[in-house]
From TrEMBL:
This is TM2 domain-containing protein. Residues 159-168 have a biased composition (Acidic residues). Residues 125-176 are annotated as: Disordered. Residues 136-157 have a biased composition (Basic and acidic residues). It comes from Apilactobacillus nanyangensis. Residues 125-135 have a biased composition (Polar residues). The chain crosses the membrane at residues 34-51, 63-94. Keywords: Membrane, Transmembrane, Transmembrane helix. The keyword Acetylation does not apply.
């Protein structure tokens, strides 16, 4: 649990250094690539005895739960199966308390992967580079003389020179 908390804090720190556009990209990536809580709980409820939720989270011993369930069903004829099925039900109930942690874990893994995709760096590299680049930027600001405080306006590919308001109403051709 402590490792999961550390990862969550690292992700929070990383996201503070990202632009709004990058954060939106990460949110979209996480929503599409992590496990939906409703699906996870439905799988636990309807297929949990067979380990369906464990397959969804790619957990170890998912096949063991499935095989034990099948063996338990087959051996109920000779009464041994009832003990196996009881153990599976207990395991199923214990898994219900683990599902929130598994969901959080998968979302954090997806977030870490999204941060590395968006920034092109791992989260550790990103943290190190952000700290050093901000120090370098401060040094560069001190070294450079004061210039116009107006930022440079970048011209987009389809923006004409005559377009003063940026709404593309002059129907200009793309720059060549």
């Amino acid at each position: 649990m402590n490792n999961l908390d550390e990862l969550e804090q690292q992700v929070i720190d990383d996201r503070k250094n990202l632009s709004t556009k990058q954060q939106l990209m990460i949110n979209e990536y996480v929503e599409t690539n992590s496990v939906n809580a409703i699906v996870a709980w439905a799988m636990w409820f309807f297929l949990g005895q067979f380990g369906g939720h464990r397959f969804l989270f790619k957990k170890n011993k998912a096949i063991l739960m499935l095989v034990l369930e099948l063996i338990g069903i087959i051996t109920t004829i000779i009464v041994i199966g009832f003990f196996i099925l009881t153990a599976i039900v207990i395991w199923w109930i214990i898994d219900a308390f683990s599902i929130p942690t598994w969901i959080k874990e998968r979302r954090l893994e997806a977030t870490v992967k999204a941060i590395s995709v968006v920034t092109g760096k791992s989260t550790k590299e990103f943290n190190q580079n952000e700290g050093s680049s901000s120090n370098e930027a401060d040094k560069n600001k001190e070294d450079q003389p004061a210039q116009d405080s107006q930022p440079e306006k970048k011209q987009s590919e389809f923006e004409s020179i005559d377009d003063t308001d940026g709404d593309f109403t002059d129907f200009s051709k793309p720059k060549e």
